[in-house]
């Protein structure tokens, strides 16, 4: 089980990225129909591609619902992309294999809270990359707990 | 029946009906796709980088025009589609048999042409029905036979073959060159024609035919006969409803209803001589001679004839034939199948049939090589012979579809689908599914249930792919579906359908489809540009895999526009790498390098990846440079690695010192500027104060011949090691004249970088210097940077000419290959003056790298020798300062500012050998010094006198290259760890306009340990008025060092010291050595120097009589300060110091020799200024010099000398500031009334009030009573009370006015002990007061004393018993004499009146009864 989590700013720029889970088991190739799926080093860029392209669907879906959690918005081969959109139009994107909406929702909510705390930092500028180590460890911890 | 518009027919040679050669066609297609570049339409459109770029202008362009390679692919694909058993769209419907009317044996030939017993090879496979409509065409060639003959023959034919006959007239234009009848392919002789345009209608198609044909022949697997009919592709285009340009045959069709899908078969054998005239497609030879022009002799009438022929064919024969068939099959097969019986029948047949499904097949199929999947797949998929009901059903549906009865077709497909599925005839099944989807798309006007349709297509594709393993047909299905969707504007569904067909097997197809999918995302109702980008990337990736470099590059480039500036780092890396690589393959090395340079950066890529990037970059660069070397315009590039932090770039001059404590140095420099330029310099000229230490021009100034360093930080952002070689600075030299008129376009620029004379001269050190005309530059051969490493590099520059030197940047070679350049981009501080500047970020221009080179200057280098790291507090050692002039000019006026002036004493060069504690013999020394507080921070350092040529100007200077040694004594003045800073300043002998002073920073650290702790206390002696007892408590704080006291000295203007008891020897050693942790006390007596001591002194005092005492000076100065007088410039008069040395041992240390004198003065100054700062915080410290004096009259300083014999250390401690006078406010407020209350500014008034207040009500100065009183009498008095009952003893009382300026009136009252017993709280007194005595005579005394006046009275006391008496019983009431103080203000008077002095120590007098003693003696 591998996950790729990214927070995307309002200008389509990634402000935070993390990969976790048991890496090296599956990889995604650039050929969409190749079935072996693994986060390999040489294919890590694909995570970004997939998440980025899923933003289109997030933009489409976000006006149809009041919820922040948009559930699974896109699919790339076996991979699902779940999204969560904050009030400030910051998108939380998770690339995952299995559908487990509740745990993902919890994970998103936790991350959202962490993100709010980052936002409250007067030295943090919206849309700028999050470099806080504390944030990183907390996100990883949340991932361990929920995913 | 509704009319069918735009009915299209296709013609093909019967023999060319082949099953497709997939491998070959894909080869041809890929060649073709490769050859098609970017269309012009794409260049007009702006690149898509954001959503708003997908505007109406973009959408207005037909998608086929954006991707012509796809259009071409589609066209070729359908060209090569061939026949298949599972659908009948490519099966012939009718057959045209053409014969020339010139044929002599018409009947026989016709028989041969269509011989049912030996049909065309395609029919042998059994799935195609050979029983089709035959249509006979008689061709009339005007050149051969007459019309009458032909018509006769035609009549004959009609009779034989019925209605399906036609006479087609051709070649109505007369033949001009009859000789070439037999060779139709020979070069035409340009016949006279009315309309050339008509004849041209075939050429383009025939040409293409030729190209295709050549492709087939050149490829090894070619079957030479399988060239294709050109018009086939139109069947597809018309199907999808596009009005593409029709083939000439079609366009000439004028009939409103023409057959939709029809095969016309020309039998090859027949055509013979006239073949080119029939329709002109069936070329016999493989090699088509290019200059052949077909249809040259066709007149317009002939063309119209062809039109009518086709129309007639379709209208009268073809469509009715098809309708007839539909009706027939519907009745025979389909209806029965639809009924219950049919179903039962089929079910029964399925379940009860014994044999496998292949029984229904044509027996020929078993051995036919064309049966699909039989050879390579065990799972034999059944093939239906043409007469089986399933095949007929399919044909029925296809015919219905062709005739556009989609609903009916749909129902038939739906029925037959089940049979296919039950028979596991997957290919048929997939075909049926496909057709159902197409039918649905064709029929429904508003498509509600799109997922349903998609489902059909998906099933079809999946079946083709997975069960039949026929991706070719899956591709066909997808293409059809996609085109249908495009036609219906349902772009949203297209990507999913297209992506389904992007498997691993055909990269080109996948790439094309992905690209189409990407474009389809843009045409969605809401454009999805990110999806577009992603699919473009995937398409580019696939294009790259199948060597379609140009397309790959284009796709990546298009996608990169969207990812630009979004900092998806891995994505960026991937795109840049792909773009770099593709452009390298395409031969565009410039672009390739550009993209690879973007990869060389900090990234999340693993090390291996980064090194791969670097390796590839270097490889490409090597090729690039070898290519560019020939072009000779080889410019170094800005490389992204290593990163040079422009902010860190700075120029380090050779006289630059530590930069660690910048602020403190800055403060010192500032102080130096304030303090150091007030007096006169060594030659007696006044010093001119520069605005900055160093240079006046706010520019970095360096001297010719002095190297400076350019320092900068280099950072390797990547994880891998990189090497930088041959680092050299890029500098620019502007001559002095040019820089002076700096606005004039910097006229004489000489960028010496390109100078060829690179004669590498190795410097004395390992530094390699490259010589240029105006400067030498250091070249650093190699710097190796590990991954993420940061290094500071400094490169030496040696200026050789006066002028301006600009450091522009750095040139280097990356990994010994890539020549790179880095400009130093620095900006000055941010400007904040105007509003505009505040609103935006504007920086001042930076000039720190813009150096001014001046004439040669001296350059100081100093070194301290034997500088101690550890000192005992008070210890003194000698340090030698080595001063070296490394510059080009003489050095003069060397001064130093020290952070700890009290620690140091600077000697002369001659004193180098002098001992610290010189043996002196005098116990009293006299010294006359200037009594002013001097600035001890800044000291001159004596330089050796220079042997001048012109003797009148004696100058002290250090010539270039010379060294001198100066002794400096250091004394541990304070405990702790100290960092001593020395700021040296000096001048050049020559007057350098640009740079007057240079400075040098130097620092040393030393730790000072505690040694002795000394306390001194004084107590008035009872022996006299001018006598004090001095007690000194000395504690050894060391644990293991034994201190030996050597000498105690006192320094004072008016007091001398003497030991209390003169037995100096004896147990001197025990008294003067202090073992660890021990404390000893020693006592001394301090006396005032008597004025009439010696005659000399009297003379001296007389001569000094016009001098003013320090107290008067201070008081006057303060007064002047208060009144605001400006001229405070007067100096206090010199003071005579008397030094008394009391040695503990035999030898005496002279205190007036230099190191000691200097130290004592330093300590004094330090102490004095520090106390003044705390006492008078309102007086600025720079005025102390003019207000206060160094010594006041009654000040005593003590110096205690010690040594540690065991470790050869010696030192001394100072006790500074013992004041034996009466405490008195230095400001006496004499003429305070004259202070003006008005001032120009309120500020000054307030300041003055504050000052006055601080002076008059200073808490530090509580005025004491100025009077001192001492009672003197004998200590023991023997009196025989039996002889005389009263013992009367005279007692001397001396009263002195210690004030230096006040006249004092006093009342002295002698008190008898019984009177005010109650007042006495002193326990000591209580114990002894019962002893009562009486004063005799007047007990009150009034008198006035002027300043320093002393009066002595005699008074008698009467005792009646023997005993011990405290005779110190008096009360002194002091009053200032108002008149004498000169009408002072009331405030001051109030503040000083009413002193009441009482004795505080008993003065004991013992009276012994003499008789008692006598009696004792008797006993």
| Overall geometry of chain A | globular
Termini separation of chain B: 180 Å
The helix fraction of chain B, in percent, is: 25-40%
Q: What oligomeric state do the depicted chains represent?
A: heterodimer
What integer value in Å does the Rg of chain B equal? 62 Å
Structural write-up:
The complex is a heterodimer of chains A (147) and B (1419). Chain A is α+β, with helices and mostly antiparallel strands and 147 residues long. Chain A has one domain (2-21, 38-146): Beta-Lactamase, CATH 3.30.450. Helices cover 35% and strands 24% of the residues of chain A. A five-stranded antiparallel sheet of chain A has the order 2-1-5-4-3, sandwiched between helices. In chain A, a hairpin with a 5-residue loop joins strand 4 (79-85) and strand 5. In chain A, helix 2 (101-120) packs antiparallel against helix 3 (133-146). Chain A is globular. The model of chain A is unreliable at 23-39 (pLDDT under 50). Chain B has 1419 residues and is α+β, with helices and mostly antiparallel strands. In chain B, 32% of the residues lie in helices and 24% in strands. In chain B, a hairpin with an 8-residue loop joins strand 29 (976-988) and strand 30. The longest helix of chain B is centred in the N-terminal third of the chain and has 39 residues, at 300-338. Classes of the chains: A alpha+beta (147), B alpha+beta (1419).
């Amino acid at each position: 089980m591998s996950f790729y989590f990214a927070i995307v700013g309002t200008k389509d720029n990634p402000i935070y990225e993390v990969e976790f889970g048991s890496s090296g088991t599956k990889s995604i190739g650039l050929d969409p129909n190749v079935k072996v799926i693994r986060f390999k080093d040489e294919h890590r860029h694909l995570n970004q591609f997939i998440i980025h392209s899923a933003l289109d669907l997030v933009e489409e879906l976000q006006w149809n619902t009041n919820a922040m959690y948009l559930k699974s918005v896109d699919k790339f081969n076996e991979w699902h992309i779940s999204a969560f959109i904050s009030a400030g139009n910051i998108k939380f994107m998770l690339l995952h294999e299995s559908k487990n909406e509740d745990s993902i929702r919890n994970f998103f909510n936790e991350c959202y809270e962490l993100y709010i705390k980052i936002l409250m930092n007067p030295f943090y500028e919206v849309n700028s990359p999050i470099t806080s180590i504390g944030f990183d460890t907390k996100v990883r911890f949340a991932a361990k707990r929920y995913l | 029946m509704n009319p069918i518009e735009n009915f299209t027919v296709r013609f093909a040679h019967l023999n060319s009906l082949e099953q497709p050669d997939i491998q070959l066609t894909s080869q041809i297609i890929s060649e073709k796709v490769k050859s098609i570049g970017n269309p012009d339409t794409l260049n007009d459109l702006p690149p898509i980088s954001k959503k708003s770029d997908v505007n109406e202008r973009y959408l207005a362009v037909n998608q086929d025009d954006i991707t012509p390679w796809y259009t071409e692919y589609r066209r070729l694909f359908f060209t090569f589609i061939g026949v298949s058993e599972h659908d009948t769209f490519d099966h012939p419907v009718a057959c045209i048999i053409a014969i020339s009317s010139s044929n002599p044996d018409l009947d026989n030939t016709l028989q041969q042409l269509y011989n049912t017993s030996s049909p065309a090879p395609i029919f042998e496979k059994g799935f195609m029905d050979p029983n089709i409509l035959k249509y006979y065409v008689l061709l009339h060639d005007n050149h051969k036979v007459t019309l009458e003959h032909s018509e006769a023959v035609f009549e004959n034919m009609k009779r034989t073959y019925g209605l399906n006959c036609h006479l087609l007239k051709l070649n109505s234009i007369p033949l001009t060159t009859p000789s070439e009848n037999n060779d139709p392919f020979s070069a035409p002789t340009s016949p006279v024609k009315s309309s050339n345009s008509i004849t041209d209608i075939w050429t383009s198609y025939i040409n293409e035919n030729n190209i295709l044909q050549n492709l087939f022949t050149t490829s090894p697997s070619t079957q030479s006969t399988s060239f294709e009919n050109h018009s086939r592709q139109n069947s597809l285009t018309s199907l999808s409803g596009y009005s593409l340009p029709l083939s000439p045959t079609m366009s000439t069709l004028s009939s409103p209803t023409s057959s939709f899908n029809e095969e016309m078969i020309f039998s090859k054998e027949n055509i013979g001589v006239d073949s080119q005239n029939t329709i002109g497609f069936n070329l016999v030879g493989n090699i088509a001679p290019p200059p052949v022009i077909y249809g040259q002799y066709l007149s317009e009438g002939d063309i119209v004839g062809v039109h009518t022929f086709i129309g007639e064919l379709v209208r009268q024969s073809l469509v009715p034939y098809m309708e007839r068939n539909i009706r027939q099959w519907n009745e025979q097969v389909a209806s029965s199948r639809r009924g219950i019986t049919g179903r039962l029948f089929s079910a029964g047949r399925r379940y009860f049939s014994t044999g496998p499904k292949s029984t229904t097949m044509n027996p020929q199929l078993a051995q036919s090589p064309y049966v699909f999947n039989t050879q390579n797949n065990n799972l034999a998929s059944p093939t239906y012979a043409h007469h089986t009901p399933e095949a007929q059903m399919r044909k029925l549906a296809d015919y219905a579809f062709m005739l556009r009865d989609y609903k009916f077709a749909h129902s038939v497909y739906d029925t037959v689908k089940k049979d296919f599925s039950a028979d596991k005839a997957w290919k048929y099944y997939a075909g049926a599914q496909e057709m159902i989807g197409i039918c649905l798309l064709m029929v429904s006007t508003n498509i509600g249930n799109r997922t349903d349709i998609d489902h059909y297509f998906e099933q079809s594709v999946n079946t083709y792919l997975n069960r039949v393993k026929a991706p070719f047909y899956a591709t066909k299905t997808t293409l059809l579906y996609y085109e249908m969707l495009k036609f219906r504007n349902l772009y949203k569904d297209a990507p999913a359908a297209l992506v389904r067909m992007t498997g691993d097997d055909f990269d080109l197809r996948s790439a094309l489809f992905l690209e189409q999918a990407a474009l389809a995302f843009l045409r969605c109702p809401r454009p999805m540009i990110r999806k577009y980008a992603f699919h473009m990337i995937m398409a580019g990736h696939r294009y790259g895999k199948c060597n379609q470099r140009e397309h790959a590059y284009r796709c990546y480039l298009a996608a990169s526009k969207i990812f630009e500036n979004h900092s998806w780092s891995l994505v960026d890396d991937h795109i840049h790498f792909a773009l770099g690589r593709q452009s390298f393959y395409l031969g565009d090395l410039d672009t390739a390098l550009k993209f690879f340079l973007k990869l060389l950066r900090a990234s999340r890529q693993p090390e291996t990846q980064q090194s791969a990037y670097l390796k590839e970059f270097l490889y490409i660069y090597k090729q690039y440079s070898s290519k560019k070397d020939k072009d000779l315009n080889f410019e170094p590039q800005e490389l992204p690695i290593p990163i040079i932090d422009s902010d860190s770039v700075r120029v380090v001059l050779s006289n630059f010192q530590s930069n660690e404590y910048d602020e403190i140095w800055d403060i010192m420099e500032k102080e130096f500027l304030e303090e150091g330029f007030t007096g006169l310099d060594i030659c007696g000229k006044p010093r001119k104060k520069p605005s900055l230490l160093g240079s006046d021009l706010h520019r970095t100034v360096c001297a010719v011949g002095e190297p400076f360093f350019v320092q900068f930080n280099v950072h390797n952002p990547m994880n891998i090691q990189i090497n930088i070689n041959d680092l050299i600075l890029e500098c620019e030299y502007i001559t002095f004249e040019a820089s002076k008129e700096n606005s004039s376009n910097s006229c004489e620029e000489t960028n010496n970088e390109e100078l060829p004379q690179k004669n590498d001269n190795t410097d004395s050190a390992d530094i390699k210097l490259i010589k240029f005309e105006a400067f030498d530059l250091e070249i650093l051969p190699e710097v190796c940077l590990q991954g993420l490493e940061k290094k500071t590099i400094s490169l030496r520059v040696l200026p050789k000419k006066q002028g301006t030197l600009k450091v522009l940047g750095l040139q280097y070679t990356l990994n010994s290959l890539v020549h790179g350049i880095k400009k130093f981009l620095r900006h000055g501080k941010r400007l904040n003056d105007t509003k505009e500047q505040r609103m935006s970020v504007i920086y001042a221009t930076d000039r720190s790298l813009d150096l001014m080179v001046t004439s040669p200057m001296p350059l100081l280098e100093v070194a301290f020798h034997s500088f101690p790291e550890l000192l005992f507090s008070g210890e003194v050692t000698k340090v030698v300062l080595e001063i070296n002039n490394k510059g080009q000019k003489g050095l003069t006026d060397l001064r130093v500012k020290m952070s700890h002036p009290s620690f140091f004493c600077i000697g002369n060069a001659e004193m180098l050998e002098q001992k610290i504690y010189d043996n002196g013999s005098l116990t009293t020394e006299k010294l006359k010094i200037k009594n002013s507080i001097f600035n001890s921070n800044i000291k001159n350092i004596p330089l050796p006198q220079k042997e001048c040529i012109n003797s009148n100007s004696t100058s002290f200077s250090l010539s270039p290259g010379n060294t001198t040694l100066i002794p400096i004594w250091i004394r541990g003045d304070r405990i702790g760890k100290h960092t001593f800073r020395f700021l040296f300043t000096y001048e050049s002998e020559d007057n350098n306009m640009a740079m007057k002073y240079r400075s040098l920073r130097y620092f040393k650290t030393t730790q000072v340990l505690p040694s002795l702790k000394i306390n001194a206390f004084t107590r008035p002696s009872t022996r006299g008025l001018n006598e004090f007892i001095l007690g000194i408590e000395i504690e050894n704080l060391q644990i293991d060092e034994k201190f030996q006291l050597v000498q105690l000295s006192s320094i004072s203007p008016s007091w001398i010291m003497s030991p209390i008891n003169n037995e100096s020897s004896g147990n001197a050693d025990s008294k003067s050595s202090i073992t660890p942790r021990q404390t000893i006390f020693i006592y001394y007596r301090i006396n005032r120097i008597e004025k009439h001591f010696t005659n000399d002194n009297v003379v001296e005092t007389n001569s000094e009589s016009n001098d003013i005492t320090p107290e008067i000076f201070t008081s006057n100065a303060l007064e002047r300060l208060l009144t605001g007088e400006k001229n405070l410039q007067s100096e206090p008069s010199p003071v005579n110091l008397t030094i008394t040395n009391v040695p503990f041992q035999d030898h005496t240390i002279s205190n007036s020799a230099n190191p000691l004198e200097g130290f004592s003065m330093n300590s004094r100054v330090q102490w004095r200024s520090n106390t003044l700062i705390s006492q008078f915080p309102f007086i600025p410290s720079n005025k102390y010099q003019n207000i206060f004096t160094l010594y006041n009259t009654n000040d005593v300083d003590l110096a205690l000398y010690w040594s540690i014999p065991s470790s050869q250390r010696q030192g001394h401690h100072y006790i500074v500031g013992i004041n034996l006078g009466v405490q008195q406010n230095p400001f006496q407020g004499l003429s305070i009334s004259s202070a003006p209350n008005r001032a120009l500014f309120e500020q000054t008034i307030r300041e003055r009030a504050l000052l006055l207040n601080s002076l008059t009500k200073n808490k530090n100065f509580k005025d004491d009573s100025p009077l001192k009183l001492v009672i003197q009498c004998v200590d023991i008095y023997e009196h025989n009370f039996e002889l005389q009952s009263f013992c009367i003893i005279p007692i001397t009382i001396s009263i002195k006015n210690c004030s230096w300026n006040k006249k004092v009136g006093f009342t002295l009252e002698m008190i008898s002990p019984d009177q005010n017993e109650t007042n006495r709280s002193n326990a000591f007194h209580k114990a002894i007061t019962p002893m009562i005595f009486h004063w005799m005579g007047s007990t009150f005394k009034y008198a006035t004393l002027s300043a320093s006046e002393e009066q002595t009275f005699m008074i008698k006391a009467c005792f009646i018993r023997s005993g011990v008496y405290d005779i110190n019983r008096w009360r002194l009431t002091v009053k200032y004499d108002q008149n004498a103080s000169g009408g002072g203000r009331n405030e001051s008077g109030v503040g000083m009146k009413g002193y009441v002095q009482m004795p505080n120590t008993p003065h004991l007098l013992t009276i012994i009864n003499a008789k008692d003693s006598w009696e004792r003696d008797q006993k």
